[in-house]
Specification:
By secondary structure, the chain is of the alpha+beta class. It has eight helices and 20 strands. The N and C termini lie far apart (51 Å). 40% of the residues are buried. Bound molecules: FE2/S2 (inorganic) cluster and fe (ii) ion (FE2).
Length: 406
């Protein structure tokens, strides 16, 4: 029998334009969001990946190549040769730069054109040519790049959790793209195919742990303490937002802090509730508006490894082992976030109180963009000349905290 719809109930017809909030999602040069991101350092490669053979890097919507010259200096140049556009990916590194394969122009890491072998006198006017380039610095085993205006370049931050490692401890850099999103390092993917902000703000979306990871599929996707019920509070910092969650573990309060730091850094509280601040940071680096990669740094006696054993199905399958219909029945972070769209539609959202952390983070970013629009600068990371950043993310037993039920 045909059901007659209620005349007072609006259907899906006649909706207005459905749009993302561009300031939060655009990363390209000249966009408000892209210019804000360009005021910070971003990891673009492992130090070990910067070798004599050039490697392609796509970041913030720009196509670049990274290489290490014979003198050990890392260069990050636009991929298109300033002469007539051949890719420097096919170039050859020299003692002091990279030589384009087509006509042999040689560029150093600051874009100086050192040689033009086909031009009269080896290029009498070669100093008029600059290959677009970006400053880089190596730290903690990663290559960080700054893609913004040189006169606004902040110091490259240090992070307290990685300074002075404990005896026997080390710093472990990693390319972490698959593990970040799929919790499964067996996944073979170069770029996660949706906007970086959807993953980044998820770190403060504490309630999805309760539903997506612990209730919806009748499987506790995160075993141990994370399967327990919790209370959450969010805290606004000048350069980030913290999510404090509290769980009752055998009569003690486990206090877990997840931290988002501008512009794309996350410190996820340790899963095992061990004491201390986070042993790992991740950068969610935009490749362009619709993709991201992740680099991580961890400290400890061995490489961080939470990515191999997270089972998403009742019979213990990890993401890479699941069929499409299993992913439908046992969705994880990738399904939840990628299905929001390549760029989510903020105009269509209905935010609630449980979205408070996400709202705080978005407002903090929009505040930085507004400051830039008024001629100011976004907040700098870290204190002092060393730009030392305090990492508060982590998990610990907090006898001063009130129980989760209060
Ligand atoms: S295109 Fe690179 S040297 Fe001519
Ligand atoms: Fe999640």
């Amino acid at each position: 029998m045909m059901q007659i719809p209620s005349a007072t109930r609006k259907s899906g017809y006649g909706r207005g334009p459905q749009t993302p909030n561009a300031a939060l999602t655009e990363v390209g040069p000249g966009t408000p969001g892209g210019e804000y991101l360009r005021r910070y350092w971003h990891p673009v490669a492992l130090s070990s990946e910067a070798e004599r053979a050039p490697r392609r890097v796509r970041v913030l919507g720009e196509n670049l190549v990274i290489y290490r010259d014979g003198g050990g200096r890392v260069g990050l140049l636009h991929e298109r040769c300033a002469h007539r556009g051949t890719s420097l990916y096919y170039g050859k590194t020299t003692d002091n730069g990279i030589r384009c394969c087509y006509h042999g122009w040689l560029f150093d890491a600051e874009g100086h054109c050192l040689e033009q072998p086909c031009e009269p006198g080896g290029g009498a006017h070669r100093d008029k040519v600059t290959q677009p380039w970006y400053p880089v610095q190596e730290r903690y085993g990663l290559v960080f790049a700054y893609l913004g205006p040189i006169d606004c370049m902040p110091p490259l931050p240090r992070f307290d959790t990685f300074e002075n490692p404990a005896p026997g401890g080390q710093i472990w850099p990693e390319r972490d793209t698959a593990a970040s999103c799929f919790l499964d390092s067996a996944v073979s993917i170069d770029v996660v195919p949706y906007n970086y902000f959807q993953y980044w703000e998820n770190i403060l979306d504490t309630y999805h742990v309760k539903i997506l990871h612990n209730t919806f599929t009748d499987v506790a996707q995160f075993p141990g303490v994370l399967a327990l019920d919790f209370r959450v509070e969010w805290e606004l910092l000048s350069d980030g937002v913290l999510a404090h969650s509290y769980r009752d573990v055998d009569g003690r309060v486990l206090h877990r802090i997840s931290q988002c730091t501008l512009p794309n850094i996350v410190a996820i509280g340790d899963l095992d509730g061990r004491a201390g601040n986070a042993r790992r940071l991740n950068w969610i680096v935009p490749v362009d508006d619709v993709g991201w990669i992740s680099f991580g740094i961890s400290r400890g006696k061995q490489q961080w490894n939470d990515s191999d054993a997270v089972a998403l199905t009742p019979d213990g399958k990890t993401w890479s082992q699941m069929s499409e219909s299993e992913r439908q029945r046992y969705p994880g972070d990738f399904e939840a976030q990628s299905s929001q769209g390549k760029i989510t539609l903020h105009s269509e959202e209905h935010l609630g109180r449980s979205d408070k952390g996400v709202i705080m983070l978005r407002r903090l970013v929009l505040k930085q963009i507004a400051a830039m629009r008024e001629g100011g600068a976004p907040v700098r990371l870290g204190d002092g000349d060393e730009a030392l950043v305090r990492v508060r993310g982590g998990g610990f037993y907090d006898d001063a905290a009130s129980p989760p039920s209060e």
